[in-house]
Amino acid sequence: MSKTIRGFGLPSHVSASSGKGVSGKVCGEGTAFALKIRQSKSKGPNPRAFAVVQFTTTKGVETILSLSSQCLYYGISCLKVHNMERDIVPKPREMMLSLDVPALHFGCQVSGESFKAFWKRANVVVNFGFGLRKVELLLSHSGVDYKLKLFYDSIWQ
């Protein structure tokens, strides 16, 4: 089962942010990974839009599909919802983990037991993700913010 659904029957004035808010209320905050709102091609007195929503897990899809079997409402509009074969983002990246490091030491290992530090900086944020294959260091020096990206391939060389 994919993590993406398509819901038809939304009012034409619905924005992506309000659509994401509704999916958050129904399935939980932060469960929608990506969202697209598109207008239907039919022009009539009451034009409708459809939403394509990709969730972070299949549980969000199952929740929406079970609710839509009874009739899922957006305002006074009853939505027709079905599962999609393809996701909006085919292989979403893993979420990054973030650590607040009290001190970061730049240097190198000079022997099996000794480390020589060239530079030390306090209050550094380290972001990393296993699927992203990189480490980001966010630090400040002389009132300027810096972001240093280290890719895993470079770290081990």
UniProtKB/TrEMBL annotation:
Domain RDR1/2-like RRM: 4-86
All residue ranges annotated as the RDR1/2-like PH-like domain in the record: 104-157
Positions of region (Disordered): 1-22
Entry-linked Pfam families: PH_RDR2, RRM_RdRP1_2
Ranges of Low complexity composition bias in the record: 12-22
Signal peptide location: none
Protein name in the entry: Uncharacterized protein
Organism of origin: Coptis chinensis
Organism classification: Eukaryota, Viridiplantae, Streptophyta, Embryophyta, Tracheophyta
